[in-house]
Design a protein that fits this description.
With about 400 residues, the protein is of the alpha/beta class. It has 2 domains: about 5-55 and about 305-395, Alpha-Beta Complex (Aspartate Aminotransferase, domain 1); about 70-300, Type I PLP-dependent aspartate aminotransferase-like (Major domain) (Aspartate Aminotransferase, domain 2, 3-Layer(aba) Sandwich). It is about 40% helix and about 20% strand. The protein is built from 14 helices and 17 strands. A hairpin with a 4-residue loop joins β2 and β3 (about 40-45). The longest helix has 22 residues, at about 305-325. The radius of gyration is 21 Å and the shape is globular. The relative contact order is 0.16. Bound molecules: pyridoxal-5'-phosphate (PLP). The site of pyridoxal-5'-phosphate has 16 residues, from α5.
Length: about 400
């Protein structure tokens, strides 16, 4: 089918909840994607920070094909080897204790919120606990995840949301302290805010939140769905801060394209929260998804992806800083590693994205005015140079 036909058919049958760009992607190779007409795009979006390994990684593809032939699904009523392997690798990479696999990031958030409420319920034998979340955060679209997403535009049509949620300002410790009550059971935040506009947590802020949590037996939930899995130059962004969460959520690059998420707990939470009957999922952690997760961790090791991100990320930062100096309408760069945003002042950022697509470059937006770059983690310096060239042409 041609792009026009694909677009028409999609708009006829698929519920219109996205204003999509007029591109129908067909296949990919490395850090490049090709549309239905064969036009090439340099990919600085990676399916929203998902396809970290680039397209067509041989080990990854072979693992999945083998697993398809062997066993795709069993339910959680039985054990399966890929889940055991994937969980062990996620625990080893995080230094945490226990994993629950989900089908998406949103479901990982739901699980994390339930684990936190259960922890506090067991502690106090009461069930009126509160959770503090951040303004401008994004945690997903289901009712629980939406309830902790600090964006009234997303929330308003769907009220009433779940109760007991209070909002504070990201990177403002006093505003967090002001929301703490004797009922607070958890504080949830993204280590680097993604959708809200690429805001890394200030080290002092994150340390302060952690101290507050320890002092008052509040659980710290770090959402690493976008910023985790090597993207910021450490396996999980919190590892560079030296601040350990009680619960961490993962998804996006965890399966590199196979839909899978996870919430991961430290020992304290694992031993005092969810037990049989409390939580479940039919698909979550099925052999195909877990074979993907397991392969992703192996490839990260073999190809030294995290070290590569440190190098490629430093170069990307340097080139983007060059653009901020050169162009009046670019007011700042924010980000870490290969999770970067350019703040665009006085020009519609959406127009730049559309021009970039015409010029064969996929970039996305974050917040109202940020040009977001979350490329596959395997990009090279030459790819960065090519991106800069295409982007400048699009200005
Ligand atoms: C994408 C995202 C989510 C939601 O994940 P889905 O897989 O889309 O459900 C939650 N939190 C953060 C930080 C995200 O970037």
């Amino acid at each position: 089918m041609k792009t026009n036909e694909i677009m028409e058919k999609s708009e006829q049958y698929v519920l219109h909840t996205y204003n999509r760009y007029p591109v129908a992607l067909d296949h990919g190779k490395g850090v490049r994607l090709y549309d239905a007409e064969g036009k090439e795009y340099l990919d600085f979006a990676a399916g929203i920070a998902v396809f970290a390994l680039g397209y067509g990684n041989e080990t990854y593809n072979r693992t999945l094909k083998d697993q398809v032939d062997k066993l795709i699904h069993t339910s959680n009523l039985y054990y399966n080897e890929p889940m055991a392997e994937a969980a062990q690798k996620l625990v080893a990479a995080s230094g945490m204790d226990k994993v629950f696999f989900t089908n998406s990031g949103t479901e990982a958030i739901e699980g994390a919120l339930k684990a936190a409420r259960k922890y506090a319920y067991l502690r106090d034998n009461s069930n009126d606990h509160e959770i503090i979340a951040m303004n401008h955060s994004f945690h997903g679209r289901s009712m629980g995840a939406l309830s902790v997403t600090g964006n009234t535009h997303y929330q308003d049509p769907f009220r009433p949301l779940i109760g007991g949620i209070r909002f504070a300002d990201f990177n403002d410790l006093d505003s967090v302290k002001a929301q703490v009550t004797e009922k607070t059971c958890a504080i949830i935040l993204e280590t680097v805010q993604g959708e809200g506009g690429i805001y890394p947590a200030d080290p002092e802020f994150l340390k302060g939140v952690k101290e507050l949590c320890e002092e008052k037996d509040i659980l710290l939930i770090l959402d690493e769905i976008q910023c985790g899995m090597g993207r910021t130059g450490s396996m999980f962004a919190w590892q560079a801060y030296g601040v350990e969460p009680d619960i961490m959520t993962c998804a996006k690059a965890l399966g590199c394209g196979i839909p899978v998420g996870a919430f991961v707990m430290n020992k304290k939470v694992a031993e005092h929260s969810l037990v049989p009957g409390d939580h479940g999922t039919t698909y979550g952690g099925n052999p195909l998804a877990c074979a993907a997760v397991s392969a992703v961790f192996d490839i990260f090791d073999q190809e030294k992806i995290v070290e590569h991100v440190q190098e490629a990320g430093a170069y990307l930062e340097q080139r983007l800083d060059g653009l901020v100096e050169k162009y009046e309408f670019l007011s700042a760069r924010r980000g870490k590693g290969l999770m970067q945003g350019l703040v665009v002042a006085g020009r519609p950022v959406g127009e730049i994205v559309k021009k970039a697509i015409e010029n064969g470059l996929l970039v996305i937006t974050a917040g109202a005015d940020v040009l977001r770059m979350v490329p596959p983690l395997v990009i090279t310096k030459a790819d960065v140079d090519e991106m800069i060239e295409k982007l400048e042409k699009s200005f």
